[in-house]
Amino acid sequence: MKGVLIGGTSHCGKSTLAADIGTATGAAVGSTDQMARHPGRPWLGVPEPVAEFYETLSDETIYWFLRVHHTNMWPMLALEIERQRAGGQGFVLEGTALRPESLAGLAGDHLVTLCLCANADFLVDRIRRESDYEARDTRMRRLIDRFVTRSIRDNAEIIADARKHGVWLVDAGDMTALATARQDILSRLSP
Fold first, then answer.
1. DSSP per residue over the chain, as a string?
2. Which pLDDT score, from 0 to 100, does residue 143 have?
3. What does the alpha-carbon distance between residue 24 and residue 99 come to, in Å, rounded to a whole number?
4. What is the model's pLDDT at position 42?
5. What is the pLDDT of residue 153?
6. How many CB atoms lie within 10 A of CB 84?
7. What are the residue ranges in the chain where pLDDT is below 50?
8. Which label site among 7, 64, 124, 172 has the fewest CB atoms less than 10 Å from its CB?
């Protein structure tokens, strides 16, 4: 059966696009975040270990941990993709762990793969809005700023890797490009 894999950094609209495609097609929607969680968004009830992660590690180490986490997840994700394909139902799987280098070569008649990206201003605005940045105290803002730094770096790496590996890249900040991609995905999923 046909499926869709949507990668991209945090806050670039993967969940929104996946839900939209799922609603339009009746396909099951899943997220890699639900399969194995990495110290993610440092707001809304932040456990102390997550706060320490963002406060004490260097930006380079924070990003390294993210990449190692995604590399370690890939065997589990590959099995889930095969399970979904064998299940005979349409599916949409989204998540930052769906890296361009892993998606390369998977696209075909029964699988649509893409990565969403956005410019830094778009990501900063979305993260700050969702985290209620302006209402946060100084410590929480520092944690959010570290998350922003990680997300911007990840976005740049995803763009470079998608281009390197020939993975479809869609600018989530361009509403026309996003709408066109949505229509293209739906047409590819049509029988």
1. --EEEEEE-TTSSHHHHHHHHHHHHT-EEEEGGGTS--S----SS--HHHHHHHHHS-HHHHHHHHHHHHHHHHHHHHHHHHHHHHTTS-EEEE-TTS-HHHHTTT-BTTEEEEEEE--HHHHHHHHHHHHTGGGS-HHHHHHHHHHHHHHHHHHHHHHHHHHHHT--EEETT-HHHHHHHHHHHHHHH--
2. 94
3. 25
4. 75
5. 98
6. 21
7. none
8. 64
Q: Which domain holds residue 42?
A: 3-189
Return d(Cα 11, Cα 20) in angstroms, integer: 16
pLDDT of the residue at 1:
60
- In degrees, rounded to 5, the angle at the alpha carbon of residue 53 between the alpha carbons of residues 129 and 40 is 40
Q: Is 19 exposed, middle or buried (0-12, 13-18, 19+ CB in 10 A)?
A: middle
Task: Tell me what pLDDT residue 148 has.
Answer: 96
pTM to 2 decimal places: 0.95
What's 102's domain CATH number?
A: 3.40.50.300
Cα atoms in the Cβ-side hemisphere of radius 13 Å centred on 60 = 0
Structurally, the chain folds into a number of domains equal to 1
